[in-house]
Design goal:
The protein is mainly β. The protein has one domain. The protein is 9% helix and 27% strand. The strands form six sheets. The chain has a nine-stranded antiparallel beta sheet, with helices on one face. The chain has a six-stranded mixed beta sheet with strand order 9-8-13-12-11-10, with no helix packed on it. β25 and β26 form a beta hairpin. The chain is globular and about 65 Å long.
């Protein structure tokens, strides 16, 4: 029996009276943002954030708060291995790109070096470590010059396709701070590029299943590559989790053309819009990216991939127990002798929020014993109730409605067809769940919902037809602040902030602290991060559409200045701010500026900006920026 999933708007509509919500920005801030109920009417700012906010703006370069330095650390195409080829945008090829920093940097994780074991303790000085960086995708029109003969599309030659396949995935580089400036150590034994052709293994309940078997891999356990790597997470045993998101853009072919035993995959592929979302030309030179030739190859993507950055010879592992979708992230909660929990959002309109709970308990005294802890456990999907409570619904084969009568024959089917399973159990369909992060101080969990322009109904917390602005939820597991039970089956939730202009029409206005500044409001929250003090940093993706640069904002999550955002960093025109990551001592903040110059009509030859080189021969390049305070203090202080 099927259950119909509620939209998030429907739930919020029944929770709060609409007339109360629309009464005014001040009352909205008290009801939804002030939360703790203290000082809702005070205008003075008592936040621990000590920097002066930068204004909204939009131009061809980046901006950071006064008193800070924002240095370019590494850019797309820079050689990261000894002897690597210098970047030549007019002669790109796969061999050169495999030795270079990848394109469109996204999620960043910092792993300290200098001890025999992994430790993210704040006592670490934070001046020497490994930087692990996702490379989500490529923008063909910005990456490659046009073909002067005009006989083939831009980016469709073999050399360009091989360069594209080598430009995605992940980079691991060693970085060190010397005399106050960060640099890449090219002679490092840790340096690694992981690309669309790197050998990997599939592990967990779906590994070896017939639906993961292909002509090239009849075992269903070995796969080449990872791509569409968006955000991710870090485990306490010293590995990185990278999330495969928009893999659908790589696969060509028509699901309706599948026949015989392959016909059963047609609906699965349509659910991911495979065949109608093609943006690359990889299928021209590799049949595994054509579903009419290799119909099960897409099933080998859309997973969470675990990588050991300390061992460059290790094989990345796709952990199928965490399910298959357009994963945005993987936020890990792990304490000694407790179950490991991983939160993840499915980044698409009307999709869901998930949580994996391990079968075994985490043993902080035995790192090696945790290496495969993510291969066995229970996957849940969230249902948000209209009274501010919620439930995690188990996704387990054999439990109604995940039974053969509804098309499931094993747990592998549940994991591969995760979206279908979530819909059947009655999960709440959300407004594009993106990053999810856990406060290191309170244990409360925050969910960025970027936007949903497909929204038709209005409601109390989202009183807007077509949510173009997004919002942030606060999920509260049982327990008290600092001692939350993330493995519990129930939770409470609250709206932390509604994005958008607080001075707009009541039907669409943003909702924050009632004394939000002129540059404190934002649109389209995407990536989230917490600094060591527990303050929330929010990166945006889409503010350019409103004539403002995307960038980074910071706020307290508790106390009288809760949801009083302050603008810290702005991207160049067309750039998206990704991957904010702090060193354990809080004295450096790394951020990724992705696809600078991307805008309507912008191309390799005529970009909207040439950041960061500003060289007429060089296209704009995604780059990692290292931000430090001029007095060497903690970021944000």
């Amino acid at each position: 029996m099927k259950k119909t999933s509620d939209t998030f708007a429907d739930i919020l509509a029944s929770r709060t009276n609409r007339r109360t919500v629309l009464a005014g920005a001040g009352s909205l801030a008290v009801t939804f943002a002030a939360g703790c109920g203290s000082g809702g009417s005070r205008s003075e700012d008592r936040s621990s954030l000590g920097f002066a906010a930068i204004p909204h703006g939009l131009d061809d370069t980046h901006h950071v708060a006064d008193g800070y330095a924002a240095d370019i650390l590494v850019s797309w195409g820079e050689p990261i291995f000894p002897g690597g080829s210098s970047f030549d945008p007019y002669a790109q090829n796969g061999r050169a790109q495999q030795q270079q920093f990848g394109a469109n940097n996204d999620y960043i994780a910092y792993f300290p070096l200098g001890s025999d074991t992994f430790s993210a303790d704040v006592s670490n000085p934070g001046d020497h470590g490994l930087l692990c960086v996702n490379h989500e995708h490529i923008n063909i029109e910005m990456m490659f010059p046009s073909n002067s003969r005009e006989t083939t599309p831009r980016g469709s030659s073999r050399a360009e396709v091989e360069a594209a396949m080598a430009a995605v995935g992940h980079s691991i580089i060693e970085v060190r701070r010397v005399n106050g400036r960060w640099r890449v150590e090219k002679e490092s034994a840790y340096t690694r590029r992981i690309t669309a052709t790197t050998p990997m293994v599939l592990t967990g309940p779906a590994a070896g299943d017939v639906r993961l078997q292909t002509p090239a891999d009849p075992t269903g356990t070995r796969v080449l590559g990872t791509f569409a790597n968006c955000s991710g997470g870090v485990t306490p045993w010293g590995t990185i989790l990278t999330a495969e998101e928009n893999f659908r853009e790589i696969f060509a072919g028509n699901p309706d053309a599948l026949s015989g035993s392959a016909a059963g995959e047609a609906e699965n592929h349509r659910r991911f819009e495979i065949g109608s979302s093609l943006e690359q030309f990889w299928h021209l030179f590799d049949d595994r990216f054509n579903i009419e030739v290799s119909p099960t190859e897409p099933n080998r993507f859309g997973w969470i991939v675990e990588i050991d950055p300390y061992d460059p010879r290790s094989t990345p592992r796709k952990r199928t127990a965490l399910g298959r979708c357009q994963h945005e992230n993987a936020a890990v909660a792990a304490e000694h002798d407790k179950f490991v929990v991983v939160y993840s959002g499915d980044d698409k309109r009307h999709e869901c929020v998930y949580k994996f709970v391990s079968e075994s308990r985490y043993d902080a005294s035995d790192i090696e014993n945790n290496r495969n802890i993510l291969d066995a456990g229970t996957l849940y999907v969230a249902r948000f109730n209209d009274d501010g409570t919620g439930a995690w619904l188990p996704l387990v084969y054999g439990e109604e409605p995940l039974v053969p009568e509804n098309g499931f024959r094993s747990q592998a089917d549940v994991l591969i067809d995760l979206r279908l399973a979530a819909s059947l159990v009655g999960a709440t369909r959300m407004d594009r769940p993106e990053d999810i992060e856990i406060s290191p101080v309170t244990g409360r969990t925050y969910i960025a919902l970027t936007k949903n322009d497909d929204r038709e109904a209005t409601d109390a917390a989202n009183p807007r037809v077509g949510n173009l602005w997004g919002h942030i939820l606060e999920l509260i597991p049982p327990g008290s602040d600092g001692d939350r039970d993330h493995a519990a089956r129930d939770f409470e939730w609250e709206v932390f902030a509604l994005a958008g202009d607080p001075a707009s029409d009541p039907e669409v206005r943003g909702v924050y602290h009632e004394h939000i500044s002129d540059s404190g409001w934002l649109c389209n929250p995407d990536n989230l991060a917490f600094d060591p003090q527990g303050r929330l940093w929010v990166a945006t993706d889409g503010f350019n559409d409103f004539g403002v640069h995307d960038g980074l904002w910071a706020t307290e999550t508790v106390g009288p200045d809760r949801a009083r955002f302050r603008h810290f960093f702005g991207c160049p025109n067309g750039g998206e701010l990704c991957g904010p990551a702090f060193t354990p001592d809080g004295r450096t903040l790394f951020v990724a500026v992705q696809h600078p110059g991307r805008s309507d009509g912008s191309t390799f030859e005529h970009p909207a900006t040439r950041w960061p080189d500003f060289d007429p021969r060089i296209p704009p390049r995604s780059s990692v920026v290292a931000i430090t305070k001029n007095d060497d203090g903690e970021i944000g202080s």
